[in-house]
Every structure is written in structure tokens, then in C-alpha cells.
């Protein structure tokens, strides 16, 4: 696998569209940070660490639904391994006029677009969520 973050976002998107209760992916600190931001913003219900049958760490994400409709409508990977995109805090694009969020990787860790603007920190635009 060349891009584990794209794989994680695709697993979340597929689980949301298939209306699955939970979804699992191989664990990493970056994926856990993304899940933490999604939970803090209300896009997922919860996430936990687990292990698979071979003893490898996994990240289990509990999806969130309101009246049977997924809260997590879509995710889009922006900066990819072949083409990294960096933004200053003044240039960070808004997602659906503020209805969605952008997740950026900064020198201070992963942050939402609003936190980046507040802390005046730019960085690599990892993904957009709405």
C-alpha cells in the first residue's frame, strides 16, 4: 500500500455509505489523530484501539448516524504522496462555506482549519471532510 491515509479515508467513506456500525483499519498515530479530530467535531461516534487475529494493532471507528443518515457525508484526500499541497494560514480553503472541515498537518501536529487560522499555523492540507 502506497498511501495508508487514503486507505483509511476510503475505509471510512465506504463504511459510511454502506451504513456499517463500525470500521477497522491498521493503527498509526496519524490515523488516530485524524479520528480524534473527527470525533471532536462530531463526524464519528467514537474510536478505540484493538488487535486483529494476527496480533497487529488496529483502529476501530464507530460510525455516527442521525435518523439513519450518515453524519460523515464524504472525505476527500487533498495532499497525496505524489503531489503535496501546503498552505499558509491565510490561504487555507473553506469547505462548503464553513460547513465542512479541512485537516492540516502542521509543525504543532494535526489541526482543523479553524484552529490553524486561530494559531496562525499553516501546513500540509491532508484532507477535507463534510
UniProtKB/TrEMBL annotation:
Subunit notes for this chain? Part of the 30S ribosomal subunit. Contacts proteins S5 and S12.
| Family the UniProt entry places it in | Belongs to the universal ribosomal protein uS8 family.
Q: What is this protein called?
A: Small ribosomal subunit protein uS8
Recorded hits in InterPro entries, A to Z, give:
Ribosomal_uS8, Ribosomal_uS8_sf
Which Pfam families does the entry link to? Ribosomal_S8 (PF00410)
Mention one GO biological process in which this protein takes part, according to its record: translation
Entry-linked Gene3D superfamilies: 3.30.1370.30, 3.30.1490.10
Q: What's an example of a GO molecular-function annotation for this chain?
A: rRNA binding
> Which function does this protein serve?
One of the primary rRNA binding proteins, it binds directly to 16S rRNA central domain where it helps coordinate assembly of the platform of the 30S subunit.
Q: Decide whether keyword Transcription regulation is in the record.
A: no
This protein's source sits in the domain of life called: Bacteria
Please give the GO cellular component terms listed in this UniProt entry: cytoplasm; ribonucleoprotein complex; ribosome
Its keywords, alphabetically, are:
Ribonucleoprotein, Ribosomal protein, RNA-binding, rRNA-binding
